[in-house]
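task queued by scheduler; priority normal; single chain, no ligands, no partner chains; default sampling; output format set to C-alpha cells
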Amino acid sequence: MKTLSKIYNILIFIFMYAPIAVMIVFSFNGIKSRSTFSGFSLRWYEELFHDDLILNSLYLSLIIALLSAVIATLIGTLAAVGINSMRGVKKRAYLAVNNIPVTNPDIVTGISMMILFVFVLGIFNGMEMGFGTLLITHITFNIPYVVLNVLPKINGMDRNIYNAALDLGCPPVKAFMKVVVPEIMPGIITGFIMAFTLSLDDFVISYFNSGNSAQTLPVTIYSMTKKPYSPKINALSTLLFVSVLTLLVIVNMRNRRDAKKAKGGRKA
C-alpha cells in the first residue's frame, strides 16, 4: 500500500511539474521552436534583457509589489492586533469579513474594484486609472493574507510579557514595538513575503485596474501571447518561477528555524 501511495504521489508531481521542466529546457533552445531542441543557448535571455517593454513592466511590477507588500504588512499587522483584542461574535465577524477577499474569485475583486475606480475617477474629471489605482488594488487584496499570517503568532504569544512591560512603566506604544513586534516578527516577515509574491504574480485584478499607462509584467506577458510566439516568454517565465521558488524556500527555512527555536524553548 505504501508503494502504491509513493507511485501515486510521484505521478502527481510529474503531472504538475513536467510542463514547467519542458518550458525551462526550451528557454535555452537555440532556435525559435516549441518542438525541436537544437542545442543550449542563452539567446532568448539576451533578447529578453534588451526588450524595453518587458524591462519597464518588470520594474513597475517590482515597485508595485514592494510598496503594496510594505503598506499591506503595516495595515495587516495592526488589523491582526485589533482583531486579536476582540472577543466572541465580534471577532468571528471580523475574521469572516477578512476571509472574504481570500475566497472571493479574482475576477469578482478585479471588476468590482474597476467599477469603484471608474465611479470615483468620474467625479474627478481628467484623472485616469494607472499607478495609483493599481497600487490601491494590490494593497487591498494583500491585507487579508498578512492578517492570516500574523494573527496565529499573536494568539500564540504570552500576553503576560506585554502586561509586564506596562507594569514596569513602559509606554503602550514602546511596549508594543519592543515586546510584541519581536515576538510576532516571523509572522510579519512571512506575510510580507506572501504579499510580495501574490502582488508580483497577479494578473486578473491587475488587468482590470492597470489602465493604459501602467502595465504589470503578467499583463505584458498576456499581451505577448496574442502575437506570434516568442521564446522570450519561456525565458521570462523561467526567471519568475526561479524567483518565486527562492522566496518559498526562504519562507520554509524560516518557518523550520522558528519551529526549532520554539521547540528548544519549550524543552528549556
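post-processing summary
- The radius of gyration is 23 Å.
- The mean pLDDT is 84.
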